[in-house]
Structure formats: structure tokens, C-alpha cells
Amino acid sequence: MRPDSFAVFLLRRLVSGIVLLAMVTAATFVLITAAPGDTAQVLAGQAGADPAYLALIRRRLQLDRPLPYQIAAYLRQSAQGDLGFSVIQGRPVRDAIGGRLLASLLLAGTAFFLAALLGVTLGVIAAHRRGGVVDAAISVISLLAYSLPVFWLGQLLIALFAVRLHWLPAGGMRSADGSGGFGDVVHHLALPAVTLSLLLMALIVRVTRTAMSEALVEDYVSAARAKGASEPRVLIRHALPNALRPVVTVLTGYLGLILTGAVLVETVFVWPGLGRLLYDSVLARDTPVLAGLLLLSATLVVAANILADVLYRALDPRTALR
Questions:
Q1: Is the domain of 131 the same as that of 44?
Q2: Spatial CB neighbours of 238, under 8 Å, sequence gap ≥ 6
């Protein structure tokens, strides 16, 4: 892998990512504008608002300008790091998102880590025991986890662990009295993180099992066993690295699944993150916050796909940078 080839590949992917983000932003404005309701009417707060007052709101927020002008203005401002001002929140969009970002990163990062760790582990075990009872049990569990809607699963976990057993809190990020510190946050994090991780974990289990099953019948695995390598070493040292390539693709490619699921999970568990902010912004037709959140989500997805391309080629040196 030559450094110059890698630089050209990375530059090409970055340019295509920027173009994609611009298209997503334009599509966001079109969809928000096409949605039922009147942003100025919502901001006015009453159904019979004075027409002159509504016209003033539209003029101040540039809602009376043509849609192409609004899109171009937002693209220009966002390129400079200015995501606009939210009248609903009463502060810049950057501050509104920044105030919720840490909570969402904590939830999504924990769920991502749990899904990767448990998914790869169970997938390796299922491939090693393929055709047996353990393999069947893991397949059934992963199928159930994939089939259950996250909002319904979250309510089931609340009913069991919070209402019936009183082991875990039903919602929020901290106790009402603010005591407990980091341990209290972890206590509140358990249920939403597990709920959010199960869907992605089910995908990783199935992909890992398939990839490991194919790797275990390759000649290099047979050669390692013939040399006297222990079974754990064969699984971890020889088969797993080659099986991780499709897993990396799933982990990075389905980042949008984590972001989408976070909206439902944060709503069910009253978690003060970006998903909850997105839900509230939709109800309030807070266009600047909606556009900022969708731009952030698109940026994360594009960055994850670029990272997937880089990691895939690092795991498979035979893949040429094109």
C-alpha cells in the first residue's frame, strides 16, 4: 500500500462525502418544507395569530425566501461552522446540540461496544459449535433480538427490571436528587444501552457466524491445526482476523441503525440526548435544529463509511485502493 495511493483514495472519498452531505442538507430542507404545518404559526403559538405578526416571523427567519436561497444560505453558513439560531430553544443550534451530545455519545458508544463484543463472541461460538444445540440457541436468540422493535423491547425491560423487580430505574440519566455520581449514571444507562445494542448485536452474530464458518474450512486453518495449534489459537489467531472484514462493514455501515434506534430508545427511557432533541424538534417544527441534527447524523455515517473502507483494506492487504 503506497502512501501516495492512500492519499489519493482518502481525498477522493472525502470529496465524495462532502458532496453527499450537501445533497443530504438540500433533501432535508425539502422534506421539512413539504411537511404539513406552518413554522411561523407554531412559533406564534396561537391559531389566530395576526397576519402581520406571522409575516414578520417569516421575514425575520427568511421563511419567505425561495427554497433554493434557504438551502444555499444554510450550506454557506454550515461550511463556516454556523448552524443557525433556534428560536424554540432560545440559543444557537450549536449550543443546543452540544448540550445533548455527551449523553448521546455515552449511550450510543456503550451500545456499540456491547453489540460488537457480544455479537462477535456469540458468532464465534456459534460457528465453532455449528449444527449443535448451542448454535441453534444462539441463532434463535439473535433472530428474536432482530425481530423485536426497540421501543417495544424497551417497554418490556422497563416493566420487568424497573416496575416488577425494582433493580434498575425506568428512565432518565440521573436520580432526581442528583446524587450518586458516575455510578448513578451507569445504573440509569444499563437498560437503554442494552435495548439499543440488541438489534445491532443480532446482525453482528449472524454475519460473524457466516464468516467464521467459511474461514474454519480454509486450508490455512487446517494447516494450523496440523501443526498442533490449540483450538482457541486457531479460532482467535487464524480464523477470526479473516472473518472480521464483513463484521467491520456491518459495524460501520449500520451506524445509522444506532442513530435511528437512539431516537426511539431515548424517547422511551427519557434519556436527555440528541434523539430526544430530534423528537421534540419535529413536534415544534424547529427547522434549524432539525437540519443541524440531520447534518450531524449524515456526517457521522459518511465518516463511518470512510473508516470502513480504510479498515477493510487494512485487514485485507490484497485489496487494492481504487
A1: no
A2: 215, 220, 221, 224, 229
Q: Is residue 235 part of a domain?
A: yes
Write out pLDDT tens, residues 210-259: 888 888 888 888 888 888 888 888 888 878 887 887 787 777 767 766 76
Q: Point out which residues pair with 86 in neighbouring strands.
A: 91
18 is written with which cell numbers? 462532502
Nearest Cα neighbor of 305 from 97, 8, 10, 2 is 10
Distance CA 45, CA 190 (A): 38
The enclosing domain of 296 has a CATH number of: 1.10.3720.10
204 burial level (CB within 10 Å; 0-12, 13-18, 19+): buried
- Per-residue pLDDT band at 78 (split at 50, 70, 90): confident
Find the length of the chain.
Answer: 322
| Cα-to-chain-centroid distance, residue 11 | 24
Helix (H) / strand (E) element for 86: namely: strand 85-86
Q: Which letter, b or e, does each residue of 125-140 get, where b requires 16 or more Cβ atoms within 10 Å of its Cβ?
A: bbbbebeeeebeebbe
State which residues form the domain around 25.
14-82
227 assigned to some structural domain: yes
Angle in degrees, 0-180, between the axes of helices 181-215 and 255-268, rounded to the nearest 10: 140
pTM of the model as a whole: 0.79
